[in-house]
Amino acid sequence: MMGKEIAVHLAAAQDSLLGDREKLRIAIDNLLSNAVKYSPRGGTISVSLAQEAGNVVLDVVDIGPGIAAEDKPRVFEAFYQGAAAYEGHVKGSGLGLAIAREYVTAHHGRLEIIDDMPQGAHLRMTLPTSNGKEMACSTTQLGR
Q1: From CA 90, how far away is CA 47, in angstroms rounded?
Q2: Beta-carbon count within 10 A of 3 CB
Q3: What's the chain's Rg over C-alpha atoms?
């Protein structure tokens, strides 16, 4: 993020959930990587973590080009890459969001696009605080 001079705003509540720490870390990393990839130099990424109705909700919002309407139905498919241009030299594989959704779904959660942005993208990960898994994972450690 330093090379693009991107500011990150973080608002986080402390909570815990049960799940596979590494898979959840990868899912979050993929969301953040996408936000960085598509954010313009000097842009801003907002990350918020809150508890809502028995769920942990992570929102990642950037001010990049956003997700085109024709790309939204397919953006979580493996190898799909939308038409939006990004600022960088390394082209992605089209697997990041597909992997993130698979890992979130395996934890009985949802990964979705929130259509509330005039510019940029807003992705939301919603995970139940209890899903029957045995490995505890604190949300304060998910991003590490």
Answers
A1: 24
A2: 8
A3: 15
Sequence letter at residue 30: N
CA distance 11 to 56: 13
- For strands 7-12 and 44-52, give the pairing: parallel
DSSP string, 88-115: SS----S-HHHHHHHHHHHTT-EEEE--
Helix then strand count (H, E) for the chain reads: 2, 7
Model confidence pTM above 0.85: no
* pLDDT per position as a tens digit, 74-106: 899 988 877 665 555 455 677 899 999 999 999
- 60 pLDDT exceeds 50? yes
